[in-house]
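Problem statement: downstream parser choked on a complex file, so we are re-checking the raw output for the manganese (II) ion run. The parser issue turned out to be on our end (a line-ending mismatch), but while we're here, posting the original submission so the record is complete.
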Amino acid sequence: MNKTMEILESALTDANFRKLLAIPNRRVHKFVADAIQLCMPMKVFVCNDSKMDREYIRRTAIARGEETPLANPYHTVHFDGFHDQARDKETTLYLTPEGDNLGEQLTQMDRDKGLEIVQKRLSGSMDNKKMVVRFFCLGPLDSLFSVPVVQITDSFYVAHSEDLLYRRGYDYFRRLPEDKEIFWMLHSSGKIMHSISIDWKKRGVMIDYKDNTVYSMNTQYAGNTIGLKKLALRLAIRKADREAWLAEHMFLMAVHGPSNRKTYFTGAFPSGCGKTSTSMVRGNTIVGDDLTYLRILNGKIRGVNVERGIFGIIRSVTQKDDPVIWDVLRSKRPAIFSNVLITEDEGVRWLDDGSEPPEIGNNYSGEWFAGKVDRHGEEIPYANKNARYTIGLEGLANLDRALDDSRGVEVGGIIYGGRDRDTWVPVQQSLDWNHGVITMGASLESETTAAIIGPSGVRKFQPFSNLDFISIPLGKYIQNHIDFVEGLEQVPPIFGVNYFLKDENDNYLNDKLDKMVWLKWMELRVHEGVGAIETPTGYIPLYEDLKELFQSHLDKDYSKMEYDIQFTTRVPELLEKIDRITNIYMETVDDTPQVLFDLLEEQRARLVDAQGEHGDCIMASTFV
Ligand code: SPV
Ligand code: MN
């Protein structure tokens, strides 16, 4: 008997051994055996996706105190402890083999050194704990898009969350060709006390792309632990690069147009900037809210949702603005809440939920009361700003039928949007594909949010809303977008949106629901159903069209004055943005495609010309 089998036989009970061996893939066996040898779990549980096995995971998460049951028997709460309630950029590293350099924008560490740290940190990390082994598929099963993933974790919360968020893949693995590419995920939250990873100072995510393996150590927040989410995205971007497709931080939805027409859009927004809420806008249908794979099939761009659930920000979810989510979170559907407040009657509260703030409850700090402060004297909010809900999509009233279509859906338009107080208009269409890729995708900036550890509200370079996950040199990633549509007869339009434009008194110029109108306008533009005004930065809507859309979809009287303010071309801000972006690429990206500098310079020239003729702030009607 070889060594792998010896380890598995001695560590697994008969039943678990049989479940694992039913997957006839030696690489799978070796990955599990190596993990056992390294992490030394007390027991190993192999999940075969049966109802019983999945229920066992949920029950164990509760029994171990990783999740707390609520009055609604389908609901639980999980706390991530104090230090790890958002993605941590600083401790997320690519392990680069000698000779590789991913460029200054990506955080890297020498691979050998990184793997040494992994060995040290994970050694014995599951001592006294049970290891869970699970099998999933990113994208629909048995499709060109499918990517099989093995997840090993000692967190039953992680295994439970993935049950809601991803397509279960045990049977898929049983029929997988021996040499199929697999992503490998190994997570340990380490020793936990009072729901805090004791070794949180030694936490981190290390991406060993050479071996398609990601290690997550002493971590608790789903964005740092759930292998299939952002950890796999980083591997997928490399796979997509090799195979000439795209792996994106994008929602996928159908915008419903006139006469029951459905047009699918993907949209890239940085975390906490309206991606989920856009994909949920009333009157449309959702395929996915976070991750999309895009491939060219028969001359068309087609997309799939990588996931089958939502790990969404719960702050500001209200009955009025988010009725679909609101209803699901009150239904008899499974949901895991994280970092919210548990009330005395075993319900949950989150920030800005539309009710008076609570006085007492339980949260990530333990027993909570209004005015409670932390060690530094800072007031502890009753829920974290990045508190989340985890649900499956199947409970949503607005779920699109195409979720599991193995060929994906045809993409009619692509949207880029960030949190931008003063530069972009609320919606515009790029002049063409390359112009959209460069001036919208590659030039995206956004103010930081609570989804990432660190201060909020700071304007940051956030190309394609994907910078945190891009795992190849940035210039190459941009070139891949340019090349993606080569040879296509019809190329979908690209749009830029901005929901966060503010006036000089720091008030938002738009209502949260206005995005409904921008979506309907973009849908019409895809089919050339409305005209537009060409400005130096792209095509913007005509007032009359928006007025009608506001009236018919939001029953709102959209005034000419609102339009004039919102759709003013702000030349100085736009020029400053071009300076910032050009500098970033010149100074920090070695392999920037020349087309980026060329198109930004062309845009600068158009803006300077217009400024010479019309001044700094140019109203839309000037360009008619
Ligand atoms: C995001 O922050 O973009 C998310 C949640 O979708 S996670 O990446 O998992 O932190
Ligand atoms: Mn995301």
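For whoever reads this later: The CA atoms of residues 416 and 496 lie 5 Å apart.
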